[in-house]
Each structure stands twice: as structure tokens, then as C-alpha cells.
Amino acid sequence: MSYTGWILLTASLVGISCGIIGVLLILRRMAMMADAISHTVLLGIVIAFMISESLQGTGMLIGAMLAGLLTTWIVQWFQSKGLQSDAAIGVVFTTLFSIGVILIATSVGNVHLDVNHALMGEISFVPWNLIDVPLVGEVPLAVVLLVTVTALVLMVILLFYKEWKITTFDPALAASFGIPVLVMHYLFMSMVSITTVAAFDAVGAIMVVAMLITPAASANLWTDRLWLMFVLSASFGMGSSILGYVIAIWLNTSISGSMAFATGLIFLFSYVFAPRYGRIAVLKKKRETI
């Protein structure tokens, strides 16, 4: 595959995996938690590196997942003590992220791990970091990791589709049916953390946040059906990757930044023209009821 092909495949996998997870984030009204976890996983990555002295392997995933779960647990603990949700998220994510930044500057500043890389990513370098895959040949490590995570996300969503549906829309009813709501919540947070760190090194925190939230928000304007929302969100994420790459080449600018910008363009189009909840459709319904 060509250099451009690997970049587009990597970004598309990010868009698909984040788009699917983002639907549940939007419906559960946890969009800001995605922003928090996408930043606090930096602390998990740094600590994992300090222990393993390697930027590769499962240590990064484990460290990031634990950091994501820690973020969720601390936020919920503050909420249980009466602190407002947005304030709890803001306090926890800024504190844990700043600890990660401090550790980078003081402990791991001599390796290829820095704040700019964490925020913007290095997707243009993805095709050069190769590993040998049996029966396939040399493949970028980021692609292998993202294919694995995307497959895992799809499997978990399909296996527990009914559980996700009922715990998202009516947790009390789910609990009355014997569904372990808290277990499902932490399983979901684990998926958010794993998906985030899989995309983190390639595209950075800014694009991860954009892909987790904006395609799902766009899909929510087009339909009320959960399965269709998953499909549309994944499609919008993949479409944003392609459109963003075209914009980046045209303007000779950041690829990840352009892809994040493209998610905003798709949302703007959806906000105006979506047949279900788009602005034009809403105004038309209002006129018909007058």
C-alpha cells in the first residue's frame, strides 16, 4: 500500500472506532468525559514507559486503560460528595494531565514523547514504524493496533447491544432486570480508554476528542435509531479522515488538525441539512404546525 494509503487507513480506523464509541458517549451525556480521558491517558502512558522503558507493547494500553478508569472513579467520587459533574471533570482531568506533562518534562524528556506529540500526534510518521505480520508482510504498527481495537469495540458492542441500549436510555430499568449497570459502565470506560490510547500516538489528543464527539453528534441529528446512529457515526468519522487529508494537502498544514476540522464541517452540514433534526427540517416543522 502507498504512503497515502496507510495514512488514510490509519485515520479511517480511528474514525470508525471513535465514532462507534462516541455514540454511547453522546447518548449518555458524557462527552466531556471523553475530553478528560483523552488527556489523562497521557499520565498512564508516561507511567507505563517509566516502568517498562518502552513506547511499544501492551504496557501502553494497560497504563492508559488504568488512567482512564482512575479518571472515571475519581470523577464519580467527587460527584458522590456533591461536586457538580462539569466541575469534577475539569478538576480531575487538568490535574492528572498536568502531572503527566510534568513527568514528561522531568523524567522522560529524552525520548520521543513530548507534549506537542501528545496533543497533535504524528500521523505522517505512521507508515515508517513497521512490524512484520505473518501472511501479510510489513504493516505499520499503528494499523495493527487500531485494527485490533476496532475489532474489539465492534465485538463488545454487538455482544452486549441490548445491554448497551437499555443501560444508556434507562439505567434504573436495566438494574431492575438484573443487568449490572456499574459493571457495564466501567466496561464502557475501559473501551473508551483503550480506543483513546490506540489513536493517541498516531493522531494526538485533539483529533481523538474530535472523533469521539463530533461524528456521533452529527449522527444524532440524522436518526433516532441506535444501530443506524452507530453506522452513520462510523461513516462520518471515516469521511472526516478522507476530507481532512484532502484539506491538509491542499493547504499544506497539519493532517490531524485538518481531520479534526473536517469533523466540524460535517457537523455543520448535518446541523443545517439533516432531515430529522437539522435546522431546515426543524423550521419547516414549526411552520407546518402554525
UniProtKB/TrEMBL annotation:
Q: This protein's superkingdom? A: Bacteria
Q: Does the keyword Transport apply?
A: yes
Q: Which UniProt keywords apply?
A: Cell membrane, Membrane, Transmembrane, Transmembrane helix, Transport
Cellular localization per UniProt? Cell membrane
| Any one Pfam family match given in the protein's UniProt record, by short name | ABC-3
GO biological process annotation, one example: transmembrane transport
| Membrane-protein topology | Multi-pass membrane protein
Gene Ontology, cellular component aspect? ATP-binding cassette (ABC) transporter complex
**Could you confirm whether the keyword DNA damage appears in this record?**
no
* Chief place of localization: membrane
Q: Family, per the entry?
A: Belongs to the ABC-3 integral membrane protein family.
Q: Which PANTHER family match?
A: ABC-TRANSPORTER METAL-BINDING PROTEIN, METAL TRANSPORT SYSTEM MEMBRANE PROTEIN CT_070-RELATED
- Any idea what this protein is called? Iron ABC transporter
Q: Which organism is it from?
A: Jeotgalibacillus soli
